[in-house]
Amino acid sequence: KGISMNKTLTSVLLAAVAAFAFTACGGGQPAAAPVATDFNKCMKEGQEAPKWVCKPFLMGGLVGLGMAEKSPAGLGFQRDEAMAEARKDLAQQLGVKVKTMFKNFTQVSGKGEGAAVDKVASSVQKQIANQNLVGSKAIDSWDHSNGSMYILMSLDPAVAAKVAKEQVQSSLKNEKALWQQFQGKKAQAELDKEIDKEMAAAAQPQ
Predict the structure, then answer these.
(1) Beta-sheet strands, E only, within the chain
(2) What's the CA gap between 110 and 106, in Å, rounded?
(3) Alpha carbon distance 90, 62 (integer Å)
(4) Is 119 exposed, middle or buried (0-12, 13-18, 19+ CB in 10 A)?
(5) What is the separation of C-alpha 34 from the centre of its chain, rounded to a whole number of angstroms?
């Protein structure tokens, strides 16, 4: 009986080993290999694009992104359209930044009343959004296989600050009481410094 039991146990063990070897050698269903995913890639309509297409950024400058679809008018027209879109993007960003900065400045410094400040801030944003932003320049471009063209435009922070100061001053002058308050308290110089600081900060990575 002892010999018979040993033979049975040996058979079971051999069968287990054989089954394991069969599975390990590929006899069973192989485990699916993990799919590597690069979340840092920029994908546009199934095609990998430069990272700036998904996240426009330039150290030391403000940037705007423009895109134009393939045009029967030719590459020159398509490029002009993409650049115009990029300038529009730049101007809108700049307008929002200056509006927010101006309202924060007046609140912290205690200068101006709410209604007048809101009116001036909105006017500044609108005026800047309508700017052509002379001084902006194309720094990179990329063509999608579907014919679309992407262009990245840059604006120097010093130029952005100059545009902001001019539009803030213009809008302030239309609100005489607020303009006099700024002039009387020499707040214009403080505001100019704040604009310079804001534009410099906007050109840094977030």
Answers:
(1) 42-44, 47-49, 62-68, 137-143, 149-155
(2) 6
(3) 7
(4) middle
(5) 31
Report whether 103 contacts 168 (CB < 8 A). Answer: no
- Does the pLDDT at position 104 exceed 70? yes
Distance CA(146)–CA(124), nearest Å, equals 38
Token pair of 66 as six digits: 């423009």
Backbone angles phi, psi at 49, to 5 degrees: -125, 165
Strands 47-49 and 62-68, sheet pairing = unpaired
Phi and psi, residue 58, nearest 5°: -145, 125
CB distance 151 to 83 below 8 Å = yes
Contact criterion met (CB below 8 Å) for 148 and 76: no
Q: What share of the chain is helix, strand, coil (3-state, %, to 5)?
A: 60, 15, 25
Q: Copy the structure tokens of residue 163.
A: 């545009």
Query: Could you read off the pLDDT of 2-57 as tens digits, one per residue?
Result: 444 444 544 544 454 444 444 444 444 544 444 444 567 899 989 999 999 998 87
pTM for the model: 0.74
Taking the C-alpha atoms of residue 94 and residue 77, their distance in angstroms, rounded to an integer, is: 26
Place of tokens 């002379």: 134
Angle at 131 between CA 143 and CA 164, to 5 degrees: 115
List, in sequence order, the alpha helices (H) in 25-152. 51-54, 75-109, 114-129
